[in-house]
Amino acid sequence: MNLLITGAWANARAHLSELEALGHSVSFLQQEGDPLPCDPASVEAVVCNGLFLYHPLSAFPALRLVQLTSAGFDRVDLPELKRRGIPVFNARGVYSAPMAEFALAGVLALYKQLRFFARNQQARCWEKHRGLLELGDKTVTILGCGSVGTECARRFSAFGCRVLGVDLTPPQDPTFASRYPLEQLNAILPQTDILVLTLPLSPDTRGLIDASRLALLRPGALLVNISRGPVVVEDALIRALESGQLGGAVLDVFETEPLSPDSPLWAMEQVLLSPHNSFVGEGNARRLSRLILNNLRGT
Asked: What is the CATH number of the domain that holds 176?
């Protein structure tokens, strides 16, 4: 097949001989917003992230397969691809382990007041903190029970947490102590000490965590968002943090990215934030290449 690969697959060139052995003729586009290096009418498969944000899907009449390097599908027109019968593969499982580790690390950092101790280390100040919390016996609700959510469940379970899974359809993985459909979310939130968001962005999930649902959480609960920023109503989140309804938040994604320097989230002691970075891990390149090559072998 005529295959267009973008710089989103960073080490694609290292696999050029394997791709050619599979019968693919490869064109490269480093920056997805740049002019295409080939006639889009001849492209039969693409490996990309946000290619169709810059080049219309209609320009690819021969397209037969789309392989995304992201876990999310929010940068492609899924209904149009489905209408045309074009299969779409995401990077399921590639980033799950580092994202789950990030979620757990963020919660532990807040529970164990690591910012307090780091600040005192810099000041050479010997001061104890008597307000440290334990993860054991806490109820963790994971909203979105795909690969990332399941990896989160395994790690929190290992620390003695009771892990509840909530998804459009109840997850089957026994790692979750209990499993619920999304329509039962409001009944689950009052039991929740830590709410971890790992669900995709869609019209149904945009703004799902609003002021009313934040108010349902146990007082002092933590929110972890490693999914997509618009799943949470950010103004409502800020108000819940300011009022103390939420005890803290671990935030890797935001409604608008980069996060504005004027956002009050930057200065909040009870907030740990990162620049959409939770997916990073040294095993990503190996996992992504293996997944892409396996999917392309099936074409």
From this structure: 3.40.50.720
